[in-house]
User: What shape does this take?
Amino acid sequence: MLSYTGSPVTGCSDNHIQTSNDKTSPPKKELVKTQNHNEMQYLELIQHIIDHGAKKEDRTGLNHREVGDLGPVYGFQWRHFGATYENMHTNYDGQGVDQLANVIDKIKNNPDDRRIIMSAWNPVDLPNMALPPCHSFVQFYVCNGELSCQLYQRSGDMGLGVPFNIASYSLLTYMIAHVCGLKPGEFVHTLGDAHVYLNHIDALKKQLEREPRPFPTLKITREVPNIDSFKFDDFEIIGYNPYPTIKMQMAV
Assistant: This one.
């Protein structure tokens, strides 16, 4: 299940357009889990931004760092929140708060807890990050043997970023559910600033012309004992039938 519940926001840009908070903005929507193509809501949101978006001058805010070193971003905050970041070569074992381990422990031992939360937003570390976290706050919920996940994303690049975010957090939910003996439930996605970069418009218009195909199925091929034991070969995608690639340039 995908639910885009974030209120549209205003803006004015020479490099991206986003939804405008006026009467033309669509109401909040929620997709019900059905056999229909759930990605239609994602495509409808892209179409709305292209049709009604306001231009906004903005930059991603990327800083200059060693190639491959993003600073204390997502993974560091998930596993070492509060530790002092040196560089990508430092061993941080045992340092900071392992939020991911805490999430899994709560799901296993206190599944009704309303604080099964993982945050990548650490104000102390923001100046040292290549880019402040876009997908920044995630909460897990257990009900009837299923694990659901709700993600708040402050900023969403609808062309390149959001599809990857949907896939990666859905995969994370599958993985956590697997090691906790649960089934994957729903993925709810809330966007704060949903935008389309101007150099993505033609590519996304081409994507909008395509009829969505049935979703593939994800299979975990063995019993994996813990979250750190997953390997690439543990995953199998069944029934994946993609269209040819549509190339888009990453905005910097």
About this structure: DSSP finds five helices and eight strands in the chain. The two ends are 31 Å apart (CA to CA). Residues 39-49+70-238 form a domain with the Thymidylate Synthase; Chain A fold (CATH 3.30.572.10).
